[in-house]
Design a protein that fits this description.
Pfam families: p450. The chain is an alpha+beta fold. The chain is 52% helix and 7% strand. A four-stranded mixed sheet has the order 1-2-6-3. The protein has a two-stranded antiparallel sheet with strand order 4-5. Strand 4 and strand 5 form a beta hairpin. The chain is globular. The N and C termini lie far apart (48 Å). The structure holds protoporphyrin IX containing FE. Protoporphyrin IX containing FE binds next to helix 4, helix 13 and helix 18.
């Protein structure tokens, strides 16, 4: 098994052996899918039997077990398209504050974005307004990191060889032990602390609209049993900030990196923005009139993957697909990075080319149907995530030029497309220059901040 950037090795296996590759690691079968059609036919069309999850330490602690279906029901209730659109005011507010930070302190763009995505998720999840050096954000980020490293394919080995659980932490190569222990502690903190805060607000009648408040007011969505319901709400809100903030951050960073690799795209987008929106900030109401911006969002989700190998599924009963036998218990990995780079489907896959989604003559799959996963396990946060990404892209391009930083030698720095390993991936830190597009940009942003309502 490769130990980093697994998706690239799995992709190469696909090129060598075909779109469906079976490997066996210490008796555990894993099926790796490298084709959109195969993933669609197995994970979507046969979702009924392909929607189990392998046991993943830490991830499971937080989010599986017999009540899992109830979690999912709570999520799909809280974040269907209509409910997700109901949170656009939160996204608009935090995004406007982001623009102001990019105006005054552009070099720390990645830090500002991290705070913004955290603020959006905490407000929508719990109605919690974050502060500088926020404790809950710190816990959420640490728990998220532990979860991401614990959920890599190599990490399942601990389940295949349970004796590994007894290897002491100091033993060379046994860092998974530490990750597991710290992860469990963090997941407890993550579930308990923010939840206790939110319950107090709710009981005092001060809770702001949020996923949490919605579920507290509709407890039967989670469960008929009030004790179980409380538990599900606690876990679901914790999962939300463990999964939501970093994923949106990663896709926005990919968009910024892409602007450095494909500067001409930025010009086309800005021409569309100037023509359609003029000299105000784009809003969600402009979405239909800005197809090129929407195409950039789609291409950002395709060009590099937030979750390159998806989240593994497990087939619950024996199956036969195109003559291949897939036994019950096989772990199914949809190589979302590989599927998004299949040149039979996306021509010149390495190029950042939003136009591919505007060509009505030869339609290609919408990357949302890849990036957010499959079947019954499809990401319930996808509408919320797309809304956030869309506004970041539209308003950043309306206000700023995103260009390469200039090195000490006077040459432009085009950062390589290097990404972190782990279940969720994001670009390694890179420098870039974010400058206002015109003299009035500053006034426009300051005026927009001043016009924000006092509170949500
Ligand atoms: C760009 C942002 C995001 C991406 C690319 C993304 C991607 C994914 C993927 C690939 C899966 C696994 C699907 C599968 O098993 O086939 C997933 C699951 C999940 N996502 Fe997201 N996600 C994003 C944002 C969010 C947000 C904002 C939330 C919270 C509101 C969220 C909550 C979840 C949850 C709870 C699951 C588990 C679903 C299950 O196991 O049934 N995600 N996501």
């Amino acid at each position: 098994m490769p130990t980093s950037q697994e998706w690239k090795t799995f992709y190469a296996w696909g090129l060598a052996h075909g779109p469906l590759v079976m490997v066996e690691v210490m008796g555990q079968k894993m099926c790796i899918i490298n084709s959109y059609r195969v993933a669609d036919e197995l994970l979507n069309d046969r979702s009924l039997i392909y929607s189990d999850r392998p046991s993943m330490p830490m991830v499971n602690d937080l989010y599986v077990g017999p009540v899992y279906k109830k979690h999912r029901r709570a999520f799909h209730h809280g974040f269907n398209r209509r409910e997700s659109n109901g949170y656009q005011n939160v996204q608009t507010r935090e995004n406007t504050l982001l623009l102001e930070k990019l105006l005054t302190d552009p070099d720390k763009y990645a830090h500002h974005l991290r705070i913004t995505t955290g603020a959006i998720i905490m407000m929508i999840g719990l109605g919690y307004p974050i502060t500088e050096n926020d404790e809950f954000v710190r816990i959420a980020e640490a728990a998220q990191l532990a979860m991401v490293s614990a959920a890599r394919p190599g990490a399942y080995l601990i389940d295949l060889l349970p004796i590994l659980k007894y290897v002491p932490e100091w033993f060379p190569g046994a860092s998974f032990q530490k990750v597991g222990r710290e992860g469990r502690e963090l997941s407890q903190e993550l579930q308990n602390k923010p939840f206790a805060w939110a319950v107090k607000q709710f009981e005092e009648g001060n809770a702001l609209p949020s996923f949490f408040k919605d579920l507290m007011e509709n407890k039967e969505v989670a469960s008929d049993d009030p004790v179980e319901s409380q538990h599900i709400i606690k876990c679901a809100t914790a999962v939300m900030y463990a999964t939501g903030a970093d994923t949106i951050l990663s896709s926005t960073l990919t968009f910024i990196l892409a602007m450095l690799h494909a500067p001409h795209i930025q010009k086309i987008a800005q021409e569309e923005l100037d023509r359609v929106v003029g000299d105000r900030l784009p809003t969600y109401a402009d979405q239909d009139a800005l197809p090129y911006i929407t195409a950039i969002v789609k291409e950002s989700l395709r060009w590099e993957s937030v979750i390159p190998l998806g989240v593994p599924h497990r087939v619950m009963q024996d199956d036969v697909y195109n003559g291949y036998f897939i036994p019950a218990g096989t772990i199914i990995i949809a190589n979302q990075w590989g599927i998004s780079h299949d040149d039979q489907v996306f021509s010149d896959p390495s190029a950042f080319r939003p136009e591919r989604f505007l060509d009505k003559e030869s339609p290609v799959p919408d990357p949302s149907t890849i990036a957010f996963g499959w079947g019954r396990r499809i990401c319930p946060g996808r509408f919320l995530a797309e809304n956030s990404l869309w506004l970041h892209v539209a308003t950043m391009l309306a206000c700023f030029n995103i260009t390469p930083a200039v090195g000490a030698d006077g040459k432009e720095i085009i950062p390589p497309r290097e990404y972190t390993s782990g279940m969720a991936s994001r670009p390694l830190p890179f420098p870039c220059s974010i400058t206002p597009r015109s003299k009035v940009t500053g006034d426009l942003i300051k005026h927009s901040v001043a016009s924000l309502p006092e509170s949500y």
